[in-house]
Automatic annotation (TrEMBL):
This is Universal stress protein family protein. Residues 3-126 form the UspA domain. It comes from Haladaptatus paucihalophilus DX253. SUPFAM superfamilies: Adenine nucleotide alpha hydrolases-like. It comes from the Archaea. Belongs to the universal stress protein A family. Pfam families: Usp (PF00582). InterPro entries: Rossmann-like_a/b/a_fold, Universal_stress_UspA, UspA.
Length: 132
């Protein structure tokens, strides 16, 4: 079984695009398992990851495609958290969301995505915000 860590933030369109990128992997329905991760940097209301819209929408898309999912929440620096959870869960791949950038900024990803790409010891899949 191929295990993907899907790191999502609050952005609904990006979370759905990331889920769709995983759904589009060959043989995803039969052999892929996804751990959804949301890392809180500030959570004064005490929300849990399943209450985050991006997490719910990604989970719904994956489950509609019959892909096994579970949800993990953490707090702290998002890039460090993603890398720690990937290591702890021994995932095969990390999926992060890319952001739209100006022409000058296209060479750079968001700071979290860029940090994960440059530091990860496993493949990183970057999905944009485009929707089907």
């Amino acid at each position: 079984m191929y295990h993907v860590l899907l790191a999502v933030d609050e952005t609904e369109s990006r979370a759905v695009a990331q889920a769709n990128a995983i759904i589009d992997l060959s043989e995803a329905k039969a052999d892929v398992r996804v751990t959804l991760l949301h890392s809180f940097t500030d959570n004064p209301s005490g929300a849990s990851a399943p209450q985050v819209t991006g997490v719910r929408r990604a989970k719904d898309a994956l489950e509609a495609a019959k892909i096994e999912t579970d949800i993990v929440e953490a707090s702290g620096n998002p890039a460090d958290t993603i890398l720690d959870v990937a290591e702890d869960r021994n995932v095969n791949c990390i999926c992060v969301g890319g952001r739209k950038r100006s022409p000058a900024g296209k060479a750079l990803f968001g700071s979290v995505a860029q940090s994960v790409i440059l530091t990860a010891k496993r493949p990183v899949l970057v999905a944009g915000e485009g929707q089907r």
